[in-house]
Design brief:
258 residues; alpha+beta; two-stranded antiparallel sheet; 6 helices; twelve-stranded mixed sheet; globular; Spore Coat Polysaccharide Biosynthesis Protein SpsA, Chain A; 21% helix; 14 strands
Length: 258
């Protein structure tokens, strides 16, 4: 049975994160790894998740690194055959969602319709009784060759929102394991389904997708700490990178005597 790693990056959204992770831990799929990267949060997210959901592995960064650098750290610290990225404001509706998704990923596609969001109290939204629906199809391929070749994972989700139109997420990850360290490369492309000039005069134009390429290495310092250095290249010529020390509190807690 393939191992599935769920990754959730969160910054100062403790209650939403808890709802997301609660829906993850009740999944009926047996070989499941759940990793929450607390991206410099100051709202007690890490402590709350650690106390309420001990099944979840937690990584913490010393500050908010931004989404892509944090996602790269999370990916570099997972061990699943399949990777699934969860936004902290998303959650599973059914306990067999992962089982269905895995079956779908093996055949190449799946379709999910999420329930409408709760009312925000906005009077205009209430007056128009707007219903928001999302549907998506996900295809995943994972290749683990023998010898010198790296492990490769490809995931593409194509979705549609009845209010904002199409959206898409593509992730291609290449990882090569060595004794005590790891090389990795990630390509991500996100089309968020929003428009320029929405609700104004003039033609609507789809916002250009966000593209990011990251190359890096992760060194395991000990049972509870890793050091990662990476360089990213983003849309519009943006550059990022640096070195980050991440602490795996779950591993540290296990190593300390009770």
């Amino acid at each position: 049975m393939p191992k599935v790693s769920i990754i959730c990056v969160s910054y100062n959204r403790r209650d939403l994160l808890l709802k997301c992770l609660r829906s993850c831990v009740i999944q009926d799929y047996s070989d499941l790894e759940i990793l929450a990267l607390i991206n410099g949060s100051e709202d007690g997210s890490a402590a709350t998740v650690r106390n309420e959901l001990p099944q979840v592995r937690i990584l913490e960064t010393h500050r908010n690194l931004g989404f892509f650098p944090a996602l790269n750290i999370a990916i570099a610290n997972t061990g699943g055959d399949y990777l699934m990225m969860m936004d902290d404001d998303a959650y599973f509706l059914d306990p067999d969602a992962i089982s269905k998704l895995l079956s779908a990923s093996l055949s190449g596609s799946n379709r999910i319709q999420l329930d409408p969001p709760n009312s925000t109290g906005n009077s205009q939204a209430s007056a128009t009784n707007t219903r928001q629906e999302d549907s998506s199809i996900t295809a995943s391929v994972s290749v683990t060759p023998n010898g010198m070749w790296p492990t490769m994972n490809f995931t593409h989700t194509q979705g549609r929102n009845n209010l904002t139109g199409g959206n898409a997420y593509t992730l291609f990850n290449v990882t090569k394991e060595f004794d005590g360290w790891r090389l990795f490369g990630n390509f991500t492309r996100i089309q968020n389904g929003q428009f320029f000039n929405a609700g104004t005069t003039g033609p609507e134009a789809l916002i250009p997708p966000s593209v990011n390429v990251t190359l890096g290495a992760m060194l395991k310092l000990n049972d509870s700490n890793t050091l990662q250095a990476s360089q990213s290249f983003g849309s519009g010529g943006s550059l990022g990178g640096g070195a980050t020390l991440a602490s795996d509190r779950a591993a540290k807690d296990k190593s300390e005597p009770s």
